Each structure stands twice: as C-alpha cells, then as structure tokens.
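FYI - complex with threonylcarbamoyladenylate, inputs then prediction.
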Amino acid sequence: MDQAADIAEAVAALKGGGLVILPTETVYGLAADAGDPRAVAAVYAAKGRPAFNPLIAHVADAAMARRIAVFDDRAEQLAAAFWPGPLTLVLPIADEAAVCDLARAGLDTLAVRAPAHPTARALLDAFGGPLVAPSANRSGRPSPTTFADALEETGGSAAAALDGGPCRIGLESTVVSLLDQPRLLRPGAVTRAEIEALIGPLSEAEADAKRSPGRLARHYAPNLPLRLNAEEPRDGEVFLGFGPLSQGSLNLSPEGDLTEAAANLFAYLRAADRSDARGIAVAPIPGEGLGEAINDRLRRAAGFVG
Ligand code: TXA
Ligand code: MG
C-alpha cells in the first residue's frame, strides 16, 4: 500500500478511538488521540502500564507544542536546536483539554516532543493534533526498534500499524524537565553536553517518583538475567560485545561506535532472549556522550536503580 493511503487509514483509526503502531526515529510507539480518554485508557491496558506513569504528547512542530504547553526561553532554544528530533521537554501545561488527565497521570505538567521520522511527521500533520505515544513494548520490556518487534509486543491491540523500517536511533528520547532548574530525567541521543551548551548545567533526576514517574528501577528488561561490564562470557551466557577486541557473534559495534551500539541494543537483547542461552553478558560501554544513555538502559535492564 502506498504511504498516503496508510496514513489516511491510520488517521481514521485514531479518530475512531483506535491505537496505531507508529515508527519514530528513536523507538516504535503505540499512538492514540491525546484528547480521547478511552483511547488513552486502551494504551495503558495494551502495555500493562501503571496509570501513574504519564505519556509523552507528540506534536508536528513547536507551534502545535505551544498550544498545549507553556514555553519559556529555554524551551524555545532547545526546540529550535533539536526539533524535530529525540528530545522531550517537560513543561507546565497550557491546555488541559488537549491532553486528557489520564495521559498526564493527573499532573499539571506535560511532556512534549516533535519526532523526526518522516512517517511520524506525516501522521501528526494529517491528524492535526497531539498524539500520545509510549514505546510500543509491554510495560517493563525493551522498547521495540523494528516493525516486527512492535507488532509482537502490542500489535494485537492496534487498529492500524505503520511500517517505518528499523529505528535509526534505537533508544528512547532524552527527557529534560524545565519546571524549575533544568533536570535530565532520561538520557538519550541528544546528549547532556549538547543541552548544557545551550541552557547551562543540568541537575540530576530526583529519586522522587512523583517528579520522574517513569524511572522505575527495573525497566527495558529482557527475560534472561543480565551481567554488565563483562570481559568475556561465562558458560551458558550469550555475549554482547563492543569494539574490535570483543569476541562473539552479537557485537553491538565492532568499530566501537556508540551510535551503532545504541541502534542495536534493544534488538540484540531481544535476539539474546530468543536464543537458548541461560544469561546475557555485556561488555563495558564507555560512559561519555550517547554512552550515558546506553549505560542507563543497561543498568535498568539489569535491575539496578539508575
Ligand atoms: O523516544 C520516545 O520518547 C518514545 C517514542 C515512541 O517517542 N516514547 C517513549 O514514551 O519513550 P514512554 O511513555 O515509554 O516514556 C515516557 C517517559 C516516561 O519515563 C515518563 O515517566 C516520562 O516520559 N514523562 C511523561 N510525562 C511526564 C511528566 N509530566 N513529568 C515527568 N516525566 C514524564
Ligand atoms: Mg517506554
């Protein structure tokens, strides 16, 4: 089917209160009309997601974002620099009706992001309003980075599904709160250094669950036990290597490239889960740049607080 027909079908599904599997440049999402509480409830149900964990409102551009959230100078600067792209801003809410209470988990703040993937942009343009879209995995599982993985996770709950190919980035967006002092709630492909260069130092996310409700300890987790900073596999373990010196068939990046490793991470965790191994060992990954986000996801997948 051609893209225009697929988009039209997806818009019709959304207008009818249905859910749509949506490709973005970070990970696949499960999208719903942000203003439709029944559709949003169906998203929580499909994921098995606790209702205290709010969703990101996806917008076509900054103009759409300004209708639903209050932008200050810092938000304007970050949106101008990184949108469309893998950056989510947490801001005070401007229009309570556009994004229903359930989608915000009752908070008076809103997470907004303008995704860069051409299919996501086409859908948002055609729909004409904000869409909530959590990662399309069932709660606690690794986010899907391919169409097949998205279908396997939550495809059964979707009225339409858009195939956008493998996700270019492979890790969820960076989340920055601008409610008071800027805070990094979730590291991602827009790095700490890139954000700090524009708006100054970022504070850490607080452990306080109310401020960063999605930051549960165990998250993004494969079924098999995960061992981090491993130099080599032990008996029965599948090994996710990194760099030219790592042995093993599942090397996250033989070249030692963090962008490539991020793009492969969730798909390789899933592949490891499908093997007959008894555990997963992961080589050390450098912590700078995109490495901060990769190590954050690995620590959570292994069950450590980040
Ligand atoms: O890359 C992404 O952001 C993907 C794609 C599909 O766009 N979406 C995604 O959504 O990762 P989700 O729901 O899996 O993660 C949203 C994160 C959660 O950690 C949630 O707690 C946080 O954003 N969040 C949402 N609204 C918030 C708010 N008002 N205050 C603080 N954190 C918020
Ligand atoms: Mg998620």
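Residues 226-301 form one domain. The radius of gyration is 19 Å.
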